[in-house]
Amino acid sequence: MKIAMSVLACATALLAGCGVADQYATFLPKVLRQPSTEPPAPEPEPDVKEMIRVGGDTLFTAHPTAVAVSRPHRIAGRGFSACVKAMVAGPMNPEPQPITLLVIIEHGKFADRHRATSQDGCATETYEKVEVARRAQEEGGAK
C-alpha cells in the first residue's frame, strides 16, 4: 500500500511539473495545478493624429506636406494600423508626389511602415488633415 501511494504521489508531482496539470486539470488538487493567467488587457487605441503630428516627418524621406491620416484599425496580436497620405518631393523629382503609407503602431510607437497596396484598403479610408512638425536638424540647417 505504501509503495502504491508513493508511486501515485511521484506521478502526480511529475505531471504537475511537466505542464500536463494546467489550471483546468480536475484530477489534481488546486494547489498542484498551474496558476491561471489572465489575458492582457487590450491596448488602448492610439492617438494617431498626435503621433503623426509629432513624428510624421520621420516616416518620409523628405518633409511631407498635405498630410492626412485615417482612423487606426486593430490588428490581431500586433497592435494597430493606420493609413497616412502626404505629398512628398522625391530624391529624383523635386515636384511633390502623392504617397500613401500603411503604418503599424505597437505599444504607442511606430513599429513598421510600407507603401500602401490595394490589399491594405487605404483607398477606401476617410482621412483627417494633420500639420506635421519639421525635424529639428532641418530647421537648424535652414537658418
Give a count of the beta strands, DSSP E runs of length 2 or more. 6
- Output the helix-strand order: HHEEEEEEH
Strand content: 25-35%
Helix proportion range:
10-25%
Distance between the termini: 91 Å
Rounded radius of gyration (Å): 26 Å
Structural class: alpha+beta
Task: Provide a count of the helices.
Answer: 3
Biggest sheet architecture = 6 strands, antiparallel
Cα shape: rod-shaped
List keywords for this structure.
six-stranded antiparallel β-sheet, 143 residues, single chain, rod-shaped, alpha+beta
Structural features, described:
By secondary structure, the protein is an alpha+beta fold. It has three helices and six strands. Strands 1, 2, 3, 4, 5 and 6 form a six-stranded antiparallel beta sheet that branches. The termini are far apart. Residues 137-143 have low confidence and may be disordered.
